[in-house]
Amino acid sequence: MSSKFPDHFLWGGAVAANQVEGAYQTDGKGLSTSDLQPQGIFGAITPRVDGDSGIKDVAIDFYHRYPQDIALFAEMGFKCLRTSIAWTRIFPQGDEDVPNEAGLAFYDQLFDEMAKYGIQPLITLSHYEMPYGLVKNYGGWGNRKTIEFFERYARTVFERYKHKVKHWLTFNEINMSLHAPFTGVGLKDDSSKSEIYQAIHHQLVASAKAVKACHDIVPGGKIGNMLLGGILYPLSCKPEDVLETQRQNRDWLFFGDVQARGGYPAYMQRFFRENNIQVEITAEDRKTLRETVDFISFSYYMSGCVTTDEQQNNTARANILNMVPNPHLASSEWGWQIDPVGLRYLLNVLYDRYQKPLFIVENGLGAKDRIEADGSINDDYRINYLNDHLVQVAEAIDDGVEVMGYTSWGPIDLVSASKAEMSKRYGFIYVDRDDTGKGSLERRRKKSFYWYRDVIQSNGNSLKDKA
Q1: Beta partners for 299?
Q2: What is the pLDDT of residues 6-47, one digit of tens each?
Q3: DSSP state for residue 57 in the 8-state scheme
Q4: What pLDDT is attached to residue 43?
Q5: Active site residues
Q6: Fewer CB atoms inside 10 Å of the end CB: C or N, the chain?
Q7: Chain segment 76-116, per-residue pLDDT in tens
Q8: From CA 82, how far away is CA 86, in angstroms rounded?
Q9: Quick one: 426 exposed, middle or buried, by C-beta within 10 A (0-12, 13-18, 19+)?
Q10: How far apart are CA 313 and CA 3, in angstroms?
């Protein structure tokens, strides 16, 4: 296909500190909420005891091996790498007055290494983790004081890296707090809706304060939000199904509405009222929320369906969500339905709604890869998945949607967020480590490595449109 991607399209990949770095207590790092979830988001919250260990403690040892990994990303031609700063490397407990210099120095070195190859950083401030000290001592995002601690952290890293990082994100998949409160806002999973939405409100205010800080501090800086793009279709054309689909899509679009439009939408007022949800929103909060993001970023793995028919209670597990499966779609090994056209649809929905640039910052296929006798890894299933999704991105661009870039999830194998598995592999680069933590951590290029290199080099011209 002839390229529809703009000349300065930011091709690359995306990882998260707690899924790749390891070194979980190195150079003064404090405990994060992720460190207390050794079995992933869906596992139990487990206090750390001397001598215990979890797979994320080492992960893929990116903390020590990043020069090798950045060189491999550069070999593929990356224009951009999305990663996160581990908040606890900068403020180990979260409430310190002075940041941890060793943590700041690590990210200086990481960003300098990326700059050597012309790879632009896209940095998430909080990716599925926060200092456990803030949860233990303050009640996490349930406490308004956490806004102040987050703003201090954001301003600290903006000042430190303002000449090295121009693209920022506030909170990873901010809407997931509705489904995993401990991971998202540091609350117990059995917290009330009022408690969860109050914590979410504090996070939205903190996000807006970070947007203002970025604009104040970073010359030419751009900052976006990040949504879990869980687009839903009605299972039938029954009006009740269509209306319920709109309501459920608004559950997550609400976060984008606040961050991109600068205030709470009217439909949420009705939702709060009818569900007896009490959220304290001050006049100062409303003023703060008017500081809106420069662009919308999101993850997309699958779509789902909605029905009001209680007999249709079969669900398909997605990243965080359970959705009614679409009878017209195939599924991955993990039961995630594969819907490339849904990505084009979602891009159009978001652009119509917000009229702001969009950035696809997660998309990929988790699969069990096999090393052949000759050492090769022939992951054609991954190539086909990504090719088909990128063809639909090109179609959305042709529709008139402004797309800044695309960072595939997990360009190198990493520890999965949901269940802390290594066997669920996303990468173009294989890492020799299994679910028990055994392996040499050797890196190995997969067939998809060379495929993605060609896609980037050709600016999308090498993609195969199967239509």
Answers
A1: 228, 362
A2: 999 999 999 999 999 999 999 999 999 999 999 999 888 998
A3: G
A4: 83
A5: 173, 362
A6: C
A7: 999 999 999 999 999 999 999 999 999 999 999 999 999 99
A8: 13
A9: buried
A10: 42
Q: How far apart are alpha carbons 60 and 66 in whole angstroms?
A: 10
Q: Residue 169's beta-bridge partner residues?
A: 124, 224
d(CA 412, CA 445): 9
CA distances from 443 to 49, 73, 313, 345 (A): 31, 12, 42, 36
C-alpha closest to that of 56 among 71, 43, 74: 43
CA 214 to chain centre: 19
Tens of pLDDT along 259-310? Answer: 999 999 999 999 999 999 999 999 999 999 999 999 999 999 999 999 998 7
Q: Which of 354, 343, 467 is nearest to 397 (CA)?
A: 343
C-alpha distances in Å from residue 298, one per residue of 23, 266, 360: 28, 23, 5
Taking alpha carbons only, the member of 205, 206, 107, 118 closest to residue 159 is 107
- Return the number of other C-beta atoms located less than 10 Å from residue 450's C-beta: 14
Cα–Cα distances in Å, from 370 out to 285, 333, 378, 425, 430?
52, 14, 8, 10, 10
Sign of the alpha-carbon dihedral angle for 231, 236, 241, 243: positive
Residue recorded with tokens 């979980």: 24
Looking at residue 331, its amino acid is S
Burial class of residue 380 (count of CB atoms within 10 Å of its CB; 0-12, 13-18, 19+): exposed
Residue for token digits 């017209």?
328
Beta strands 429-431 and 443-445 are: antiparallel
The residue type at 250:
R
Six-digit token string for 170: 């506030």
Q: What's the confidence (pLDDT) of residue 317?
A: 45
CA-based nearest residue to 35, from 128, 168, 157: 128
Q: Which two tokens stand for residue 137?
A: 């001592």
60 and 414 in contact (C-beta within 8 Å)?
yes
Query: Euclidean distance between the first and final Cα of the chain, in Å?
Result: 11
Q: How many residues does the chain have?
A: 467
- Bridge partners of residue 443, in order along the sequence: 431
Q: Which tokens hold the place of 308?
A: 């009001």
Residues 361/122, Cβ–Cβ less than 8 Å: yes
